[in-house]
Amino acid sequence: MIRQLFLFTLLTLSTPLAAQETNPPVEVVYTVDVQEPLSGRVKVTMRVENNRQEYIEITLPRWNPGSYRFQDHYKTVENVTSKEGGTKIAKSTWRIPAKKQGVTITYTVTVPRKRLDSKHFFFEAPSLYMYVVGQKEALYRVKFLLPANWKVATGLKMKRGYYYARDYDTFIDCPTELGRFTLLEFQEDKVLYQLAIDTVGEINEDGLVELCRKIVKGQNALFGPLPFQRYVFLFHFINSWGGRGLEHLNSTNIDLSYNYIKNDIRNAASLISHEYYHLWNVKRIRPAALGPFDYTGMVRTRHLWVCEGLTSYYGDLTLARTGIWDETRYFRHLANEIVTHNNNPDRKVTSVEEASEKIWDNRPHPRVDYYNKGELLGFLLDLKIRKMTQNKKSLDDVMRHLYDRYVVEGGGSIGVGFEGDGILKALNTISGGDFTQFYDRYIKGTEDLPFTETLAEAGLNIQLTVVRTAELTLPLRRLVINNVPPKSAVELAGLRPGDKLVKMNGEEITSGSFRRKQRALKVGEAVQLTFERAGETFDIRVAAGEKENWACTISRMPDASPEQTKLLNSWLDKK
């Protein structure tokens, strides 16, 4: 489809000038008013220019690319109005009578307190900007009305007070920070990098700049010339636990716990590196389903293990290659990923392709994590390709091949998506071998990953041990049932969300005593459990199942051959 759009553009440019003047292109211009941030609402004015239809339909995306779940942003939209009138025709769609000279629509958006306060407003664009149905290829631009001393940080281009992009897909792929943030900058590989920082406390600014510089320099070397002149990191160091990030074409927004990074900014390294690598993998190298986007429904692909898992692999490998992590820490990280994977019983039930495809579905935990298994697949594939080719080729070459084949040579601004067997073809092309059996067993299939033999061939020693213990497989959180999948054993036992476990074999329990009693059980041992629901109690009998507890260590073989040592040093970019 991108090829067709590109050809259409060429044909349009060859049209006589008079015809172009007769039918000027549709433009959508927004004004975003944030002058009263404490109101909790943002006013948006949307002007559709050069319209040629009797009416237009405007709508908000139901989901954000990179976040595979419905957000249903329409629930935050109020007071959609136009002088020409209008009708809501679906949950997130309005039909507006239109005039040829243009139509103006206004609406307000309610914003969560953590995103909008007296000092800043951060938003991901799909939550704010409605688009004209059938006109995603129009030019979209925006200007902001801001409180005094507020600034703008975004990946959008800027001209004459407006921020713009070539089409809607590109326009909403640029999250925006408005406010009194700190702005840091550095140059690397002829690109301007900007760091917009909103933080609840002081941070090591020089350390953050140097961390980002090492990451971008290390990853840029993998692919060559960069596809932009400016890249923006939008950081929020907040009072919460954990962290998250979301990738974009020339920017990323990253939320991290301030307590996690306040004493050592390097704790942000893994998330930063992961999100930056996405500018190639997902935003450009991608399955065909992931662009151009359909924002109205579920977009499924069996390749999220590539999109996210291989990004996790290269994100963390970058830290080892650049010295942000030493070799021991990186090996410990890989060992922890192996433990996480092996401790998940769903690894023997659900393939990583199936887990990718069904991420939209409400499935019980634990389930195969395509981030986790995808990273381990990248690790194994990299070592296997290096071994097969006497270290002449690697997974680096596979990713470059995908970039050249589907992006550089794909046509359009960001290339085309790869087909269903595109990854297998790339593996075989680069390695000169046949990865079909590997693909069938470990990617399409559910066989345990071949850690021991693959690492041994590369000169790595892996110690994998497992202890099997009894476990009552109940979806409990603080002794309360929190999830009852349909047709599951829990549902068949008559349990419902909210049921509270109060006794075990007739004895009252706490969270601590339940864990102690569970550890004393034997596999298959029957247990009587008493639950409370709406002030009444009832009993069920269950049998203790089996749980695997794995442990893992990884190290270099002390007697590794010169060839194996060379392979490992090349993999970790040690000179």
Main β-sheet, spatial strand arrangement: 4-7-2-1-10-13-12
First-last Cα distance: 44 Å
Strand content: 25-35%
What portion of residues is helical?
25-40%
- Mean pLDDT across all amino acids: 92
Oligomer: single chain
* Radius of gyration using CA atoms only: 27 Å
Enumerate the spans where pLDDT stays under 50 for 5 or more consecutive residues: 1-20
Structural class: alpha+beta
Record field, number of beta strands: 27
Walkthrough of the structure:
- The protein has 575 residues and is α+β, with helices and mostly antiparallel strands.
- The radius of gyration is 27 Å and the shape is globular.
- It has a seven-stranded mixed sheet with strand order 4-7-2-1-10-13-12. A five-stranded mixed sheet has the order 15-16-17-19-18.
- Helix 11 crosses helix 12.
- Strand 12 and strand 13 (162-165) form a beta hairpin.
Task: Explain the layout of strands and helices.
Elements lengths: L1 H12 L3 H6 L4 E7 L7 E9 L5 E5 L17 E6 L4 E4 L2 E5 L5 E8 L9 E4 L7 E2 L6 E7 L5 E4 L2 E3 L2 E4 L2 H4 L4 E4 L2 E7 L2 E9 L5 H19 L6 E9 L4 E5 L3 E7 H4 L7 H9 L26 H18 L5 H16 L9 H6 L12 H19 L6 H14 L13 H10 L4 H8 L7 H8 L1 E12 L4 E2 L2 E2 L7 H4 L7 E5 L2 E2 L2 H9 L6 E8 L2 E8 L1 E12 L5 H10 L4
Parallel strand pairs: 1-10, 16-17, 17-19
Antiparallel strand pairs: 1-2, 2-7, 3-6, 3-9, 4-7, 5-6, 8-14, 10-13, 11-14, 12-13, 15-16, 18-19, 20-27, 21-22, 23-24, 23-25, 25-26
Helix pairs in contact: 4-6, 6-7, 7-10, 8-10, 10-14, 11-12
